[in-house]
UniProtKB/TrEMBL annotation:
SUPFAM superfamilies: FabD/lysophospholipase-like. This is Patatin-like phospholipase family protein. Keywords: Hydrolase, Lipid degradation, Lipid metabolism. The active site is at residues 52, 196. A motif (GXGXXG) lies at residues 11-16. Residues 7-209 form the PNPLA domain.
Length: 342
């Protein structure tokens, strides 16, 4: 039975290189299977969700071509290159920025000028409603204290839900302490102060599941777990630990960074656990696939954008593919089969 293909990508800053690299390999394998170098991963997806760096990747994958607005503009490789080209500039801070902010105590760690410039170059003036597939990008509205979900399908229904993609990407990645709060405007001129969706849904796969349940697709209306094939990608398992003797006397300043990391990884693990059992209950055990590569030689820091570490992140992605070749091939098979192309 054909299923709805769903892709979900976690948050994790520069570590987005890892899922991006894996998705690039999956796209290349699809091209090899089809004998068509113009085939794109997005052609075989029905719904895409992302948080933070996963949100940026999602927007990149779904950006429409200038020639055909129903086709993707970028190959996965071109989307991942955003990190390699602009990562160092995005996660750069001048000495004077550090001094003015007392090394991150009184101000965000990084100015967002380079991030906004990179997003402008990547997305231009494309609107959320113009993305080529239904999607969900997470953020959190601090004024009204509630989750904000950017969805292509709702943007198509109402201009009040439509935004510039470059601003959606900025909002979903406005990580507290790293970047300043994003103030963005809807198509009808309403302002929203937003921060990184990772504060509540670093792994947006459950959000993707819930949103997909409400939609009608070509071959399935209001799908349940038995009708879904959900591929969820992490940004590298966290290997930094904290001992009792180290943490027992932590105060506010010492807890900030480890707490963010623990909350993000804890959320990802919890969501994965819930979905595993949810799909099992729907007699579709193979319908939920979670990829969580090891970081290996790469840094667990979200902002370690040195050339050496970005290469190490790419290596971690390729190493996962190499060590899990059958699993990657099975993913390709399922994506194609669910589209009736096998």
């Amino acid at each position: 039975m054909k299923k709805i293909n769903i892709l979900s990508i976690d948050g994790g800053g520069i570590k987005g290189i890892i899922p991006g690299t894996i998705l690039q390999v999956i796209e290349e394998k699809i091209q090899q299977r089809k004998g068509d170098d113009q085939a794109r991963l997005v052609d075989y997806l029905d719904f895409v969700a992302g948080t933070s760096t996963g949100g940026i990747l999602s927007c990149g994958l779904l950006t429409p071509s200038d020639e055909d607005p129903q086709k993707p503009k970028f190959k996965v490789q071109e989307v991942v290159n955003l990190y390699h080209k602009h990562g160092k500039a995005i996660f750069h801070k001048s000495f004077w920025h550090e001094v003015r902010g007392l090394w991150g105590i009184l101000d965000e760690k990084f100015p967002n000028k380079a991030l906004r410039k990179a997003l402008q170059k990547q997305f231009g003036e494309i609107k959320l409603s113009q993305l080529i597939k239904p999607c969900l990008i997470t953020s959190y509205e601090i004024n009204n204290r509630k989750a904000k979900f950017f969805t292509q399908h709702n943007a198509n229904l109402s201009p009040s839900e439509d935004f510039l993609v470059k601003e959606v990407a900025q909002a979903t990645s406005a990580a507290p302490t790293y970047f300043q709060v994003a103030m963005i405007k809807s198509a009808i001129g309403v302002n929203y102060p937003l921060i990184d969706g990772g504060v509540f849904a670093n792994n947006p796969a459950m959000c993707a599941y819930a949103e997909t349940r409400k939609l009608d697709f070509k071959n399935v209306k209001k799908p349940t777990s038995k009708d879904m094939y959900l591929l969820s990608l992490g940004t590298g398992s966290e290997n930094e630990t904290y001992s009792y003797s180290q943490a027992k006397n932590f105060g506010l300043a010492q807890w900030i960074k480890p707490l963010i990391s623990i909350m993000m990884s804890g959320n990802s693990e919890t969501v994965s656990h819930q979905l595993k059992w949810l799909f099992d209950a729907g007699n579709n055990k193979e319908g939920y696939v979670r990829l969580e590569p090891k970081l290996l030689h790469a840094s667990p820091k979200m902002d370690e954008a040195t050339r050496k570490n970005m290469n190490a992140l790419k290596e971690a992605g390729l190493n996962y593919v190499s060590e899990n070749e059958k699993q990657i091939d099975d993913i390709v098979t399922n994506l194609l089969m669910n589209k009736g192309e096998l």
